Structure formats: structure tokens, C-alpha cells
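Give me C-alpha cells for this 329-residue protein.
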Amino acid sequence: MNRIRLLPVLLPLILLGAAPLPRDAAPPPAFYEALRAADLRLATIAYRLTTANAALCDRLQPQLGMPIHALTQYGADARPTAKAVFGFESAVGVEAVVAGGPADRAGVRGNDSIVAINGHAEFGRSVAGPADRDAAEAQLAGGAPTAPVVLDLMRRGRRLTLSVAPVPGCRSRFEILLGSGLGASADGAIVQIGETFFEGYDDAEIAVIVSHELAHNILRHRARLDAAKVKTGLLAELGRNGRLIRQTEDEADRLGIYLLANAGYDPMAAPTFWRTKGGDIDGGVFRSRTHASSKARADMLEALAHEIAATKTRPIVPPILAMRDAPLR
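Here you go.
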């Protein structure tokens, strides 16, 4: 994801009303701190959802609570400021750490730069290649869910080695997608959520969207839709395509509210969200018919919320998980 291409347009959104910059101007340091704050909010929500729902996932990874990034995610003109704000003494840096998470407990700090992961010294350069962030993500996620992760770091010119004891969690990456407004998507491996959610929505509301998208990944919807040869784009709403996409959206709503409850969020946050802010998301009367209306979603989720409230054990493992290997027909 090349963030900087869209930054001049998005800067006034992230900074909540700042005057627009000229299109070719690099954002000021305040932009990067706002971006860090938004990324940390998403990482905290994601850590909470993935670790609390590990029992619901048959594909796990070590969760560290440590969003990372690379300097080349930012355009060439913006890199000097990004480097000043984020450090980047190596190719890949720690953007922030989730409070109380494994990285935080191990002593990792935001602006630490990653030189090596488990002894693989691949990130010592000061400017990353396009795939370096993805390679680092793959190394961090590729080990056994509870195996210690040894990080060689640079911190203000000093090298240190820390061992992080991860927590098992559902396998998924999470990213803020700049330029997508209130969009959100999941492709089986990555959850992406638009930057506008981090302006006018609180964390519980954002968690409703993130849990829905994570549910798509847990239920393998992208792979199941592809196997069923379902068409997207202009053909998404037609006939069998629309029916099967709608089925996966309904399934994601149903599983998502259990993910919320297991992670300690109030399950009523989901129906409340769709009643109060659903029109902003689904387009109201102009919504895609591949999704239920906000009212229908709220009604269905409220009924489930009452059932969940009557169940005291956590985590709840809902029957819908049995659908994740079923072909879509």
C-alpha cells in the first residue's frame, strides 16, 4: 500500500479540518502522528478481536500487538519528514505498540527499527524495497503461535535484542486504506478499513466494522466465492452472484457480533451502530442489494445480542463456524 500518493487529499480529513495542502506538498509532521494514532487504534482493536477469538479460528498466528511499516510506503518527497518522525534506522520500523500487548511487555517501543527477526538479518538498510514490509510481516506471522519472536532492533543509535512472547490469535493482517472513505474489505488474508472511520467513529463502532471483515476471513468467503465463480463488479448484484454475495454478508454479520462479544465489546454496539450510522455506510436507498438494509441488519443483530447476553461463558463458538468449508451454491 503506497500511502503517500493520496496524502495531500486526505490530510485535511485526518487532521480534522486543517486547510488543504498544495497537491505536490509533503505533509507536515502532525500528519504522521495522526496516522500513527489511527494505526494504533486499529491495531489495538485487531489485537483484541484476534486474540479473544483464537478458539474460533483454525488458522492462527503469533499476535505481537506491534504494527510495522517501511519508509518506502511513503512517497519520495515525504520520506525525509517520515524518517524524522518515525526514526527508520533500518528498512522496517515499529510504528507503535499496543498497550499491555506482548511487544509492549517485552520492552519494544514505537520508532524502534527492525534489523533482524529470529536471526534473519534482512532489514539493515535504511531504505526498504517495496516488499520488505511484507517480508517482515510474513516472518512475524509465520512462526508457531506461541513461539518466542526474537527482534534485533535499533533505538536511537543503540542496538538491542528483545524476545517477545506472542499470544495466539486469528490469522489476518489489518490496514488502513487511504482514499477509501468509509469503505472496508477483506480478501481472506487482509482486512482493510477506510481512513474516515478514524475521524468520526469511536473504537467500539470501528470494532463493529472490523469484526464483520474479520468474520469474512475466518469464514473463507473470498475463496468460497471464487470457487463458486461468483462475479463481482458490475455483475455483483445480478441473480446467483447477488444471492451468494448477500449470503456471505449475512454470515459475516452473524459471526461478527460473536467476535465482538468474545472480545469484551457490548454486542448491542452492532445493532446500535447500524441503526444510528448505517445509512452513512450502506448508501441508504442507493445501497447495493448485495447487503441487507441497515434496519434489517440492526433487527437481526439485536436478536442475536439478546441471545449472547444470556450466555455467560466466553468465548462463545457459534454454529455458523461449521459453514466455513461449505461450498456456496
